[in-house]
Amino acid sequence: MYQVSLVTAAGAGFNKPTSFVGVLSEPVAVCVAHGLTGSHTNSHNPEWSNALVVDWTASGLTATLVKRVGSSDLIQLGASKTDNSVNAETLVDLMMGHCATMFKRKTGGDVWESKKAIAKLRTACETAVRTLDRGASATVEADGLVDGMDLRVPVSKPRWEMLSGSVVAKGKELISSVSEGVNVDVVLMSGSVCAMPSVKAMVDGLFEGAWTGLGNVACEEAVMVGCAVQACLMVEAGIEESGAGKEQNIVVEAVDEVKIGLAKVVGDAVDENSIKVVVRNGTAVGVEVAGFLAGISKGDTAAVVDMNDGNKVLVKIENCDEGELKVGIRLGKEGELVVRVGDGEIAC
């Protein structure tokens, strides 16, 4: 049986709530936007257990599993994979290759021999890719691209889906690997690439029957919406505590890095080589993050440590069982750090 205890008296525990107040990681922000954290009334069955957040932006693709903690509004971040090679620039490169080939076939001009022509072609292709996210066709146009010759290449939606098929297939492989063996109830999409009909169709085909989020939250804006909803909830909570009509002063402390970790304790000292980071910048209020510490022997002592304060021990976990130690850590709405081991909780 675990014995969990605060190391010091009240007031000496975690004291940096404002370090986290305005920071949300992308998957959490998307969940907030669609109401999975109880941020507003859900329009779907609230008995969901597992969600998958597909965040496909200009910088790459990240798929993250999110688990609901019991029947509460708390969520727990799970497995996550990222592939930065399947980004918006890759799609533009595919369009550029197609247009350069068509241009040379028609005019004999070689776009790749001129840096100026390449830059001009890239700008035109970026515009065309954005147009194809919404429209049925687009025309890539560039006046005087090479030796005074103009570029005019029409691209239909079917042609574009064929050109981008390799990128979509690679994304499908990553998403499938993250969700393998998990019964996904909710699939949420974020980022400009997710606006592509072929990407939407691919994800829908992988998770038939899963709820796909609130219809009024556009995938390109999901992260921003989530951050705005979280900010409004924070302000409302402040007004309720101090009384309606009173002015609210919200102070945000600027920090470079915030880290809370798990570690073994040997004697009275923390084994710094064993520290595993659990909570860092990007962890949202009310979101439980699971921390794992391997190589625990029966009777060992572990600790939750503030890595920004000389690995200061906040909570001791004594009489551990042999194997892997699992600890849930979340930030309460008033900034307190809540540690859960088994069925027990303790607030710092």
How would you sum up this structure, described in words?
The chain has seven helices and 16 strands. By secondary structure, it is of the alpha+beta class. It folds into two domains: 114 residues, no CATH class; 223 residues, ATPase, substrate binding domain, subdomain 4 (Actin, Chain A, domain 4), CATH 3.90.640.10. The strands form three sheets. The chain has an eight-stranded mixed β-sheet, with helices on both faces. Strands 1, 8, 9, 10, 12 and 13 form a six-stranded antiparallel β-sheet that branches. It has a two-stranded antiparallel ribbon with strand order 5-6. β3 and β4 form a beta hairpin. α5 packs parallel to α6. The longest helix has 21 residues. It is elongated and about 75 Å long. Pfam families: HSP70 (PF00012). Keywords: ATP-binding, Nucleotide-binding. GO terms for molecular function: ATP binding; ATP-dependent protein folding chaperone. InterPro entries: ATPase_NBD (IPR043129), Hsp_70_fam (IPR013126).
Task: Looking at this protein, list some descriptive labels.
six-stranded antiparallel sheet; alpha+beta; eight-stranded mixed sheet; Actin, Chain A, domain 4; elongated; single chain; 7 helices; 2 domains; disordered N terminus; 348 residues; 16 strands; 29% helix
User: Helicity range of the residues?
Assistant: 25-40%
As for the number of domains, it is 2
CATH topology title of the largest domain: Actin, Chain A, domain 4
Strand order of the largest sheet: 7-2-3-4-11-14-15-16
Beta-strand content estimate: 25-35%
In N-to-C order, the SSE pattern is EHEEEHHEEHHEHHEEEEEEEEE
**Overall pLDDT, averaged?**
78
Number of strand segments: 16
The rounded distance between the terminal residues' Cα atoms is: 21 Å
Given the structure, what is the number of helices?
7
Largest β sheet strand count, sense and barrel closure: 8 strands, mixed
Query: Any idea of the CATH class of the largest domain?
Result: Alpha Beta
- The unreliable regions are 1-22, 41-45, 239-256
Protein structure class: alpha+beta
GO molecular function, one term: ATP-dependent protein folding chaperone
Keywords: ATP-binding, Nucleotide-binding
InterPro entries: ATPase_NBD (IPR043129), Hsp_70_fam (IPR013126)
